[in-house]
Amino acid sequence: GIVVSMIKEGKIAGRACLLAGAPGTGKTAIAMGMAQALGEDVPFTMIAGSEIFSLEMAKTEALTQAFRRSIGVRIKEETEVIEGEVVEICIERPSTDPGKDAGRTGRLSLKTTDMETEFDLGAKMIEALQKEKISVGDVITIDKANGRISKIGRSFSKSKDFDATAQNVRFVQTPEGELQKRKEVVHTVSLHEIDVINSRQQGFLALFSGDVGEIKNEVREQIDSKVAEWREEGKSEIVPGVLFIDEVHMLDIECFSWMNRALESPLAPVVIMASNRGISTIRGTDYKSPHGIPIDLLDRLIIIATEAYSKKELMRILQIRCEEEDVEMDDEALEGLVALGMKTSLRYVLQLITTSALVAQKRKSSIVQLQDIKRVYQLFSDAQR
Description:
The protein is an alpha/beta fold. The chain has helices at residues 2-9, 27-38, 59-69, 123-131, 191-199, 203-209, 217-233, 253-262, 295-298, 311-324, 331-343, 346-362, 370-379; strands at residues 16-20, 44-48, 71-92, 105-111, 116-121, 138-143, 149-155, 171-172, 180-190, 236-240, 242-246, 270-275, 279-281, 288-290, 301-305, 328-329, 367-368. It contains 13 helices and 17 strands. The strands form 4 sheets. Strands 3, 4, 5, 6, 7, 8, 9 and 10 form an 8-stranded mixed sheet that branches. The two termini are 38 Å apart. 25% of the residues are buried.
Protein backbone atom coordinates (compact mmCIF):
# COMPACT_ATOMS: atom_id res chain seq x y z
CA GLY A 1 0.00 0.00 0.00
CA ILE A 2 2.81 2.42 0.86
CA VAL A 3 4.58 1.75 -2.46
CA VAL A 4 1.34 2.29 -4.43
CA SER A 5 0.62 5.63 -2.73
CA MET A 6 4.23 6.75 -3.32
CA ILE A 7 3.94 5.86 -7.03
CA LYS A 8 0.67 7.81 -7.30
CA GLU A 9 2.28 10.88 -5.75
CA GLY A 10 5.29 10.47 -8.06
CA LYS A 11 7.78 10.42 -5.18
CA ILE A 12 9.40 7.09 -5.87
CA ALA A 13 10.32 7.41 -9.58
CA GLY A 14 13.70 5.94 -10.43
CA ARG A 15 13.68 3.69 -7.36
CA ALA A 16 13.47 -0.05 -7.27
CA CYS A 17 11.85 -2.58 -4.96
CA LEU A 18 12.55 -6.28 -4.56
CA LEU A 19 9.85 -8.71 -3.49
CA ALA A 20 11.72 -11.67 -2.02
CA GLY A 21 10.14 -14.81 -0.66
CA ALA A 22 9.55 -18.51 -1.17
CA PRO A 23 7.55 -19.73 -4.19
CA GLY A 24 3.77 -19.44 -3.74
CA THR A 25 3.88 -16.55 -1.24
CA GLY A 26 2.09 -14.15 -3.59
CA LYS A 27 4.85 -12.03 -5.14
CA THR A 28 3.30 -11.93 -8.62
CA ALA A 29 -0.14 -11.47 -7.04
CA ILE A 30 1.11 -8.32 -5.24
CA ALA A 31 2.35 -6.94 -8.57
CA MET A 32 -0.98 -7.66 -10.28
CA GLY A 33 -2.80 -5.98 -7.39
CA MET A 34 -0.56 -2.91 -7.78
CA ALA A 35 -1.40 -2.70 -11.49
CA GLN A 36 -5.12 -2.72 -10.65
CA ALA A 37 -4.75 -0.16 -7.82
CA LEU A 38 -2.80 2.32 -9.98
CA GLY A 39 -5.57 2.51 -12.56
CA GLU A 40 -5.43 2.65 -16.35
CA ASP A 41 -3.55 5.92 -16.67
CA VAL A 42 -0.32 4.67 -15.10
CA PRO A 43 1.64 2.45 -17.54
CA PHE A 44 2.33 -1.01 -16.08
CA THR A 45 4.66 -3.43 -17.89
CA MET A 46 5.22 -7.00 -16.78
CA ILE A 47 8.11 -9.11 -18.06
CA ALA A 48 9.86 -12.30 -16.94
CA GLY A 49 13.63 -12.31 -16.53
CA SER A 50 14.08 -14.99 -19.19
CA GLU A 51 12.18 -12.95 -21.85
CA ILE A 52 15.20 -10.68 -22.27
CA PHE A 53 17.31 -13.39 -23.93
CA SER A 54 15.98 -13.32 -27.47
CA LEU A 55 17.96 -14.05 -30.63
CA GLU A 56 16.56 -11.10 -32.56
CA MET A 57 17.43 -8.36 -30.13
CA ALA A 58 20.28 -7.41 -27.81
CA LYS A 59 19.57 -7.92 -24.11
CA THR A 60 20.00 -4.25 -23.31
CA GLU A 61 17.70 -3.26 -26.19
CA ALA A 62 14.94 -5.53 -24.86
CA LEU A 63 15.38 -3.99 -21.40
CA THR A 64 15.40 -0.44 -22.83
CA GLN A 65 12.12 -1.13 -24.63
CA ALA A 66 10.58 -2.49 -21.42
CA PHE A 67 11.76 0.62 -19.53
CA ARG A 68 10.38 3.00 -22.17
CA ARG A 69 7.08 1.10 -22.28
CA SER A 70 6.69 1.88 -18.58
CA ILE A 71 6.96 5.66 -18.95
CA GLY A 72 3.84 7.49 -20.06
CA VAL A 73 3.60 10.96 -21.58
CA ARG A 74 0.41 12.91 -21.07
CA ILE A 75 0.05 15.23 -24.06
CA LYS A 76 -2.38 18.15 -23.80
CA GLU A 77 -3.92 19.58 -26.94
CA GLU A 78 -6.27 22.52 -27.33
CA THR A 79 -8.91 22.21 -30.02
CA GLU A 80 -11.63 24.59 -31.12
CA VAL A 81 -15.11 23.10 -31.07
CA ILE A 82 -18.62 24.33 -31.85
CA GLU A 83 -21.07 23.07 -29.26
CA GLY A 84 -24.82 23.62 -29.26
CA GLU A 85 -28.33 22.24 -29.53
CA VAL A 86 -29.68 21.52 -33.01
CA VAL A 87 -32.65 23.79 -33.78
CA GLU A 88 -33.22 22.75 -37.39
CA ILE A 89 -31.56 20.83 -40.20
CA CYS A 90 -32.49 21.63 -43.81
CA ILE A 91 -30.99 19.42 -46.51
CA GLU A 92 -31.75 20.35 -50.13
CA ARG A 93 -31.71 17.46 -52.56
CA PRO A 94 -31.20 18.27 -56.25
CA SER A 95 -34.53 17.46 -57.96
CA THR A 96 -33.07 16.48 -61.34
CA ASP A 97 -31.15 13.39 -60.19
CA PRO A 98 -31.78 12.38 -56.59
CA GLY A 99 -29.05 9.72 -56.83
CA LYS A 100 -26.32 12.34 -57.13
CA ASP A 101 -24.96 13.46 -53.76
CA ALA A 102 -22.35 15.85 -55.12
CA GLY A 103 -24.65 18.86 -55.40
CA ARG A 104 -26.28 18.54 -51.99
CA THR A 105 -26.24 21.56 -49.75
CA GLY A 106 -27.99 22.38 -46.51
CA ARG A 107 -28.30 24.55 -43.43
CA LEU A 108 -27.81 23.70 -39.78
CA SER A 109 -29.05 25.94 -36.95
CA LEU A 110 -27.39 25.58 -33.56
CA LYS A 111 -28.18 27.43 -30.34
CA THR A 112 -26.85 27.84 -26.82
CA THR A 113 -28.70 29.57 -23.98
CA ASP A 114 -27.20 32.90 -25.14
CA MET A 115 -27.09 32.79 -28.93
CA GLU A 116 -28.24 31.06 -32.10
CA THR A 117 -26.34 30.72 -35.40
CA GLU A 118 -26.93 29.21 -38.81
CA PHE A 119 -24.22 27.29 -40.69
CA ASP A 120 -24.08 26.30 -44.36
CA LEU A 121 -23.41 22.61 -44.90
CA GLY A 122 -21.47 20.89 -47.67
CA ALA A 123 -21.84 17.30 -48.87
CA LYS A 124 -19.21 16.00 -46.42
CA MET A 125 -20.88 17.52 -43.35
CA ILE A 126 -24.33 16.30 -44.47
CA GLU A 127 -22.92 12.78 -44.71
CA ALA A 128 -21.42 13.07 -41.21
CA LEU A 129 -24.73 14.31 -39.77
CA GLN A 130 -26.64 11.42 -41.34
CA LYS A 131 -24.05 8.91 -40.17
CA GLU A 132 -24.40 10.08 -36.56
CA LYS A 133 -28.23 10.14 -36.97
CA ILE A 134 -28.45 13.74 -35.72
CA SER A 135 -31.98 15.09 -35.31
CA VAL A 136 -33.53 18.30 -33.96
CA GLY A 137 -33.07 18.55 -30.20
CA ASP A 138 -29.70 16.77 -30.07
CA VAL A 139 -26.76 18.47 -28.38
CA ILE A 140 -23.68 18.04 -30.62
CA THR A 141 -20.05 19.14 -30.83
CA ILE A 142 -18.25 19.78 -34.13
CA ASP A 143 -14.44 19.69 -34.11
CA LYS A 144 -13.26 22.60 -36.26
CA ALA A 145 -9.90 21.03 -37.13
CA ASN A 146 -11.18 17.82 -38.71
CA GLY A 147 -14.95 18.39 -38.94
CA ARG A 148 -15.79 15.41 -36.74
CA ILE A 149 -19.31 15.50 -35.28
CA SER A 150 -20.06 13.82 -31.96
CA LYS A 151 -23.40 13.56 -30.24
CA ILE A 152 -23.42 14.35 -26.51
CA GLY A 153 -27.09 13.62 -25.84
CA ARG A 154 -30.59 15.04 -26.15
CA SER A 155 -31.65 18.37 -24.72
CA PHE A 156 -33.83 18.40 -21.57
CA SER A 157 -36.27 20.71 -23.36
CA LYS A 158 -37.12 17.83 -25.71
CA SER A 159 -37.50 15.20 -22.98
CA LYS A 160 -41.31 15.54 -22.92
CA ASP A 161 -41.70 15.17 -26.72
CA PHE A 162 -42.21 11.41 -26.63
CA ASP A 163 -43.96 9.19 -24.13
CA ALA A 164 -41.23 6.56 -24.26
CA THR A 165 -37.50 6.86 -24.97
CA ALA A 166 -34.76 4.26 -25.29
CA GLN A 167 -32.74 3.42 -22.20
CA ASN A 168 -29.44 4.60 -23.66
CA VAL A 169 -30.66 8.16 -24.41
CA ARG A 170 -28.78 10.71 -22.32
CA PHE A 171 -30.49 13.98 -21.50
CA VAL A 172 -28.19 16.98 -21.10
CA GLN A 173 -28.59 20.72 -20.50
CA THR A 174 -28.45 23.12 -23.44
CA PRO A 175 -24.85 24.47 -23.53
CA GLU A 176 -24.25 27.96 -22.12
CA GLY A 177 -22.18 30.87 -23.40
CA GLU A 178 -20.78 31.11 -26.89
CA LEU A 179 -21.13 28.45 -29.58
CA GLN A 180 -17.40 28.36 -30.28
CA LYS A 181 -15.30 27.04 -27.39
CA ARG A 182 -11.73 25.92 -26.77
CA LYS A 183 -11.46 22.43 -25.31
CA GLU A 184 -8.43 20.68 -23.86
CA VAL A 185 -7.93 17.06 -24.92
CA VAL A 186 -5.47 14.82 -23.06
CA HIS A 187 -3.84 11.72 -24.62
CA THR A 188 -1.58 9.30 -22.72
CA VAL A 189 1.02 7.41 -24.75
CA SER A 190 4.14 5.54 -23.68
CA LEU A 191 7.62 6.64 -24.75
CA HIS A 192 8.10 3.29 -26.50
CA GLU A 193 5.08 3.97 -28.74
CA ILE A 194 6.55 7.35 -29.73
CA ASP A 195 9.90 5.60 -30.42
CA VAL A 196 8.28 3.00 -32.69
CA ILE A 197 6.25 5.55 -34.67
CA ASN A 198 9.34 7.69 -35.29
CA SER A 199 11.77 4.84 -35.96
CA ARG A 200 10.72 4.19 -39.58
CA GLN A 201 8.31 5.21 -42.33
CA GLN A 202 5.40 2.92 -41.44
CA GLY A 203 6.12 3.09 -37.74
CA PHE A 204 2.53 3.05 -36.56
CA LEU A 205 1.91 -0.21 -38.48
CA ALA A 206 4.77 -1.81 -36.55
CA LEU A 207 2.87 -0.94 -33.36
CA PHE A 208 0.05 -3.28 -34.38
CA SER A 209 2.13 -6.05 -35.98
CA GLY A 210 4.51 -6.15 -33.01
CA ASP A 211 7.50 -6.33 -35.37
CA VAL A 212 9.56 -3.56 -33.78
CA GLY A 213 13.21 -4.63 -34.00
CA GLU A 214 16.00 -2.48 -32.60
CA ILE A 215 15.53 1.25 -32.36
CA LYS A 216 18.49 3.55 -32.92
CA ASN A 217 19.82 5.56 -29.99
CA GLU A 218 19.70 8.82 -31.99
CA VAL A 219 15.93 8.45 -32.44
CA ARG A 220 15.48 8.05 -28.70
CA GLU A 221 17.68 11.04 -27.90
CA GLN A 222 15.68 13.27 -30.27
CA ILE A 223 12.41 12.10 -28.71
CA ASP A 224 13.71 12.71 -25.17
CA SER A 225 14.73 16.27 -26.05
CA LYS A 226 11.37 16.89 -27.75
CA VAL A 227 9.45 15.57 -24.71
CA ALA A 228 11.62 17.74 -22.42
CA GLU A 229 10.78 20.75 -24.65
CA TRP A 230 7.04 19.99 -24.39
CA ARG A 231 7.34 19.70 -20.62
CA GLU A 232 8.90 23.16 -20.38
CA GLU A 233 6.14 24.62 -22.56
CA GLY A 234 3.51 22.93 -20.37
CA LYS A 235 2.18 20.88 -23.30
CA SER A 236 2.91 17.53 -21.67
CA GLU A 237 3.81 15.85 -18.41
CA ILE A 238 5.67 12.63 -17.65
CA VAL A 239 3.80 9.81 -15.92
CA PRO A 240 6.37 7.44 -14.36
CA GLY A 241 4.87 3.96 -14.55
CA VAL A 242 5.85 0.59 -13.13
CA LEU A 243 8.05 -2.11 -14.63
CA PHE A 244 7.67 -5.50 -12.95
CA ILE A 245 10.45 -8.02 -13.60
CA ASP A 246 9.56 -11.53 -12.44
CA GLU A 247 12.36 -14.09 -11.81
CA VAL A 248 14.97 -11.34 -11.71
CA HIS A 249 17.72 -13.89 -10.83
CA MET A 250 17.53 -15.04 -14.48
CA LEU A 251 19.18 -11.79 -15.67
CA ASP A 252 22.97 -11.78 -16.13
CA ILE A 253 25.70 -9.39 -15.01
CA GLU A 254 25.45 -7.24 -18.19
CA CYS A 255 21.73 -6.62 -17.61
CA PHE A 256 22.36 -5.71 -13.96
CA SER A 257 25.13 -3.22 -14.81
CA TRP A 258 22.86 -1.66 -17.48
CA MET A 259 20.04 -1.35 -14.93
CA ASN A 260 22.38 0.38 -12.49
CA ARG A 261 22.89 3.12 -15.05
CA ALA A 262 19.28 3.20 -16.26
CA LEU A 263 17.88 3.75 -12.77
CA GLU A 264 19.91 6.98 -12.51
CA SER A 265 18.45 8.52 -15.66
CA PRO A 266 15.77 11.24 -15.24
CA LEU A 267 13.29 9.16 -17.28
CA ALA A 268 13.16 6.02 -15.16
CA PRO A 269 10.06 4.14 -14.06
CA VAL A 270 9.56 2.41 -10.72
CA VAL A 271 11.14 -1.02 -11.06
CA ILE A 272 9.71 -3.85 -8.99
CA MET A 273 11.56 -7.14 -9.07
CA ALA A 274 10.60 -10.54 -7.72
CA SER A 275 12.95 -13.38 -6.82
CA ASN A 276 12.53 -16.67 -4.98
CA ARG A 277 16.26 -17.45 -4.58
CA GLY A 278 18.37 -17.15 -1.46
CA ILE A 279 22.17 -16.92 -1.81
CA SER A 280 22.83 -17.92 -5.41
CA THR A 281 25.34 -17.38 -8.21
CA ILE A 282 25.05 -14.19 -10.26
CA ARG A 283 24.49 -15.34 -13.83
CA GLY A 284 27.57 -14.76 -15.99
CA THR A 285 30.02 -14.74 -13.03
CA ASP A 286 31.34 -17.14 -10.36
CA TYR A 287 30.33 -14.86 -7.47
CA LYS A 288 27.51 -15.66 -5.11
CA SER A 289 25.21 -13.00 -3.66
CA PRO A 290 21.76 -12.73 -2.02
CA HIS A 291 18.89 -13.32 -4.52
CA GLY A 292 21.43 -13.65 -7.36
CA ILE A 293 21.64 -9.83 -7.66
CA PRO A 294 24.99 -7.93 -7.47
CA ILE A 295 25.62 -6.12 -4.15
CA ASP A 296 25.84 -2.63 -5.75
CA LEU A 297 22.32 -3.05 -7.20
CA LEU A 298 20.99 -4.56 -3.97
CA ASP A 299 22.01 -1.32 -2.19
CA ARG A 300 19.55 0.62 -4.35
CA LEU A 301 16.61 -1.70 -3.66
CA ILE A 302 13.94 -1.51 -1.02
CA ILE A 303 13.57 -5.19 -0.09
CA ILE A 304 10.07 -6.38 0.82
CA ALA A 305 9.96 -9.91 2.25
CA THR A 306 6.88 -12.01 1.54
CA GLU A 307 5.96 -14.69 4.06
CA ALA A 308 4.01 -17.91 3.74
CA TYR A 309 0.25 -17.65 4.22
CA SER A 310 -1.29 -18.32 7.62
CA LYS A 311 -3.97 -20.99 8.11
CA LYS A 312 -6.76 -18.38 8.11
CA GLU A 313 -5.51 -16.77 4.86
CA LEU A 314 -5.17 -20.17 3.18
CA MET A 315 -8.76 -20.98 4.12
CA ARG A 316 -10.01 -17.73 2.58
CA ILE A 317 -7.99 -18.18 -0.64
CA LEU A 318 -9.33 -21.72 -1.09
CA GLN A 319 -12.92 -20.57 -0.48
CA ILE A 320 -12.58 -17.83 -3.15
CA ARG A 321 -11.00 -20.31 -5.57
CA CYS A 322 -13.81 -22.84 -5.02
CA GLU A 323 -16.40 -20.12 -5.77
CA GLU A 324 -14.52 -19.16 -8.95
CA GLU A 325 -14.36 -22.76 -10.16
CA ASP A 326 -17.97 -23.54 -9.19
CA VAL A 327 -16.95 -26.33 -6.85
CA GLU A 328 -18.99 -27.08 -3.74
CA MET A 329 -16.92 -28.43 -0.88
CA ASP A 330 -17.94 -29.37 2.65
CA ASP A 331 -16.13 -27.90 5.69
CA GLU A 332 -14.29 -31.11 6.52
CA ALA A 333 -12.80 -31.33 3.01
CA LEU A 334 -11.82 -27.63 3.10
CA GLU A 335 -10.01 -28.11 6.42
CA GLY A 336 -8.29 -31.17 4.97
CA LEU A 337 -7.10 -29.05 2.01
CA VAL A 338 -5.85 -26.29 4.34
CA ALA A 339 -3.87 -28.84 6.40
CA LEU A 340 -2.39 -30.18 3.15
CA GLY A 341 -1.54 -26.62 2.03
CA MET A 342 0.36 -25.92 5.25
CA LYS A 343 2.39 -29.11 4.69
CA THR A 344 2.96 -28.82 0.91
CA SER A 345 2.29 -25.59 -1.02
CA LEU A 346 -0.62 -23.36 -2.02
CA ARG A 347 -0.18 -24.10 -5.73
CA TYR A 348 -0.37 -27.87 -5.22
CA VAL A 349 -3.59 -27.52 -3.19
CA LEU A 350 -5.20 -25.25 -5.82
CA GLN A 351 -4.58 -27.98 -8.42
CA LEU A 352 -6.43 -30.49 -6.23
CA ILE A 353 -9.70 -28.48 -6.24
CA THR A 354 -10.68 -29.33 -9.84
CA THR A 355 -9.34 -32.88 -9.72
CA SER A 356 -11.25 -33.67 -6.48
CA ALA A 357 -14.42 -32.20 -8.06
CA LEU A 358 -14.02 -34.64 -10.97
CA VAL A 359 -13.61 -37.57 -8.55
CA ALA A 360 -16.78 -36.45 -6.70
CA GLN A 361 -18.61 -36.27 -10.05
CA LYS A 362 -17.64 -39.87 -10.74
CA ARG A 363 -19.30 -40.82 -7.42
CA LYS A 364 -22.44 -38.98 -8.69
CA SER A 365 -22.01 -36.41 -5.91
CA SER A 366 -22.16 -32.61 -6.35
CA ILE A 367 -20.30 -31.86 -3.09
CA VAL A 368 -16.60 -32.64 -2.61
CA GLN A 369 -15.90 -34.58 0.60
CA LEU A 370 -12.77 -35.54 2.51
CA GLN A 371 -12.60 -38.99 0.85
CA ASP A 372 -12.24 -37.27 -2.60
CA ILE A 373 -9.36 -35.14 -1.30
CA LYS A 374 -7.64 -38.27 0.09
CA ARG A 375 -8.12 -40.06 -3.24
CA VAL A 376 -6.53 -37.28 -5.35
CA TYR A 377 -3.73 -36.87 -2.78
CA GLN A 378 -2.82 -40.52 -3.39
CA LEU A 379 -3.07 -40.12 -7.17
CA PHE A 380 -1.05 -36.93 -7.62
CA SER A 381 2.26 -36.55 -5.82
CA ASP A 382 3.58 -33.16 -4.68
CA ALA A 383 7.15 -31.81 -4.71
CA GLN A 384 8.17 -33.53 -1.46
CA ARG A 385 6.93 -37.02 -2.34
